[in-house]
Design brief:
The protein is an all-alpha fold. The protein is about 70% helix and about 0% strand. It folds into four domains: about 140 residues; about 100 residues, no CATH class; about 80 residues, no CATH class; about 100 residues.
Length: about 450
């Protein structure tokens, strides 16, 4: 029970049921439902919903003027209004509560039955009505399906959007917990659509790509909390778009970037759609792939698509300028860029190129393993264009600070720092020289915080 004003009526209904007063129990159960739904509309009006405000103003006017006809009209239509206007109820829930309303009329109005007949509800019937009252109305929060979707659209385009680490808990508490399944499904479908076909409304405060990125992150967060919602949502959205011819090349690429890592996607789409995806990954130019966030979810969970994806990734990272863009793009699987970044570092042919590639590697610091750093250290020590670049000493100190807590990296850093220092001292007699890497050596030895 969420509404404190409805709780006493349900409690009275339960007491009536326990004492065998079944007709009284039905009447009180309906009173609790009607009051709960009315208060939900009041809550919606308080949050600024214009249609809800009109309904409440009409009801309050009828109460003030003792307009019995208008008040009865409110009661007769409240289930229809809560389903069609505010989406507090699903069509099935409305049917369940209409049965309660009909039996309430039979219980409270003897004239509604034929002469000589008496409505005598059974204990089982009353238990069913009490359960429906709780499950369809009393236990649910005062947030309509439409309002929940409006709230999400507002949040995803706001500056107060939660950090990725907080997103799953935020969606659970604000949108998924205690919310009817139909609303959760509709929200999931909205998020899925936003990740594959982001809105282009000129009124957006954030960029289209930020909104798309947030929708992708929301898909992963919902999958973490309730994976069945994402599975059902994919079946609903992608299958519908296949039937209506809505899967353009751009949508297909965004679909790979948003959902490709989920096996349910590849078991849902048709073989023809999958063939289109494979062909597109093989021929799309890097700009098209990057612009449509194709790499955001990492390797697809299908062998054929994964092979085409690997081909596309190789082509997209062949030029370092594209790799910089990819590393800057928010993605679920950033570790996929470590290999290309190390390849680029190995190919550094000038001081400036070396510095740029080291900065790129620095952005991937959280994804670097000790093996990755070992490979990087070989590149650095054997390529004078790297270790003699003017920014390299500072960049390596920053990279050390970002990775020194990773298992197995301490020995790698100490060996690199000692090697660079020894190489320098072979031709110099100044142990504190700029390219002596003495500061990095002190860091690696724990002598300098």
């Amino acid at each position: 029970m969420r509404d404190p004003l409805s709780r006493p009526h349900l409690q009275e209904a339960v007491r009536a049921f326990q004492s065998g007063a079944y007709r009284a129990a039905i009447v009180e159960a309906w009173v609790a439902v009607a009051l709960d739904l009315t208060n939900k509309i009041r809550h919606l009006a308080d949050t600024g919903d214009g249609e809800a405000r009109v309904k409440i103003e009409q009801l309050d006017k009828a109460i003030d003027e003792r307009d019995t006809v208008a008040m009865q009209q409110h009661e007769r239509t409240i289930l229809e209004v809560c389903e069609t206007s505010f989406e507090f109820l699903t069509s099935r829930e409305r049917v369940e509560l209409e049965r309660l309303y009909e039996d309430r009329n039979l219980s409270a109005h003897p004239a509604f039955v034929k002469p000589g007949e008496v409505f005598a509800p059974t204990a089982e019937l009353v238990r069913g009505h009490l359960a429906a009252a709780v499950d369809c109305a009393l236990a649910l929060p005062p947030v309509s399906g439409r309002k929940a979707l409006d709230n999400f659209l507002r949040d995803v385009d706001s500056s107060s959007w939660p950090r990725d680490g907080d997103l799953a808990n935020y969606l659970r508490t604000e949108y998924l917990s205690g919310t009817r399944r139909s609303v959760c499904i509709n929200l999931t479908k909205l998020v899925l659509k936003g990740s594959m076909q982001p809105p282009t409304d000129e009124a957006l405060k954030m960029s289209v790509e930020i909104v798309a990125s947030r929708c992708r992150a929301s898909v992963h967060a919902i999958y973490e909390v309730q994976p069945d919602l994402v599975r059902e949502g994919i079946h609903g959205v992608v299958s519908s778009w296949e039937r209506t011819g809505s899967l353009t090349d751009e949508v297909l690429l965004r679909m790979v970037g948003a959902l490709g890592h989920l096996s349910v996607l590849w078991s849902t789409i048709s073989p023809g759609t999958k063939s289109r995806v494979v062909a597109l990954l093989e021929v799309a130019d890097p700009d098209m792939l990057i612009d449509n966030q194709t790499f955001a979810a990492g390797e697809p969970a299908d062998d054929d698509v994964a092979a085409a994806y690997a081909h596309a990734k190789t082509g997209a990272t062949a030029e370092f300028v594209n790799l910089e863009r990819l590393v800057e793009t928010r993605s679920v699987e950033r570790a996929q860029w470590v290999g290309p970044a190390l390849d680029a570092l190995e190919g550094a042919a000038s001081f400036r190129a070396a510095e740029t590639r080291l900065r790129c590697l620095l952005k991937l610091a959280p994804q670097l393993s000790s093996e990755d750093l070992e490979r990087a250290s070989v590149c650095i020590r054997t390529n004078s264009q790297i270790y003699q670049a003017s920014d390299t000493p500072e960049l390596l100190q920053n990279l050390y600070r970002e990775t020194c807590a990773t298992d197995g990296t301490q020995d790698v850093w100490q060996n690199l720092a000692e090697g660079l220092h020894e190489d320098y001292m072979t031709d110099h007699d100044d142990p504190e020289g700029y390219y002596s890497y003495k500061s990095l050596l002190d860091l690696a030895r724990g002598l300098n915080a």
